[in-house]
Amino acid sequence: MTADAPALAEVARAKVNLFLHVLGRQPEGFHTLRMMVVFPKIGDLITAEPASGLGLSVDGPFGDGLSTGEDNLTLAAAAALAVKLGAAPGAALHLQKNLPIAAGIGGGSADAGAALRLLSRIWPGSDRVDLHNIAFALGADAPMCLAQTPAIVGGIGERLSPAPAFPGFWVVLVNPMTPLSTAEVFAGLERRENPAGAQPPAQFSDLAHLTSWLTTQRNDMESAARKLRPEIGKALSALAWDRTCLFHRMSGSGATCFGIFATEAEALNASAQIRQAEPGWWVAPAEVEEWTPT
Fold first, then answer.
1. CATH code for 8-159?
2. Is-catalytic flag, 111?
3. Given 111, 141, 220, 242, the catalytic residue
4. Buried-most residue among 4, 66, 99, 254 (CB within 10 A)?
């Protein structure tokens, strides 16, 4: 990256779990999971500019009080890549934090994945580094957020395979502004060994096929999350109240919930209605692009 190079950017899209199965707990304490994730067109923004050292600045609607040290996964990802390169490359990273924190939609893992994608385009030699392994060392969500493509996820988050083809749709993300840590939800699970559920079809022929199949799946973390944050139930009810909402569920460990809508107009209308009823909530409509695995 030359001294006069313009800032480069990567969007750290929100991760939405269409389903999430907790299949068991491994001896070292990690949970075996199976899930389907998609990445709507909404997220944080990571930019980089030339610098002699490595640093991070943060702003955005949810940036207040967020660390700019290596406990921030954006900077931790950059530092880990620098170590693998065996050099001391520099970059002034900036995180525009647009997504709520501890919300079940990727958060810091999405930022880490975006930082790795961005810096791998800037720092020479990155093509020889296994970014997947760097991401996995940062957290179970980081590999899928690094790939940022629709996927069926297994293991403890490291096993990725392409999701079946599906048509495009819109989601409305709703967070009642009550942070909820993944560890807290896992600690509240009543069952840690659940059935895997049916395998997805080779492709979803239309949106009705997708939403119908999703009703046969689960989010095994939802019950524990709702006990910890009863507002999640209220958010789900707000989505279900709209007659154009085709499907709704909690994402990840919560507290963000999502509804699936066929059109942008329906998603925008539902968002406006929920914002009017609950002005203190974070409500965001976003497109999920049509997907065909290659």
1. 3.30.230.10
2. no
3. 141
4. 254
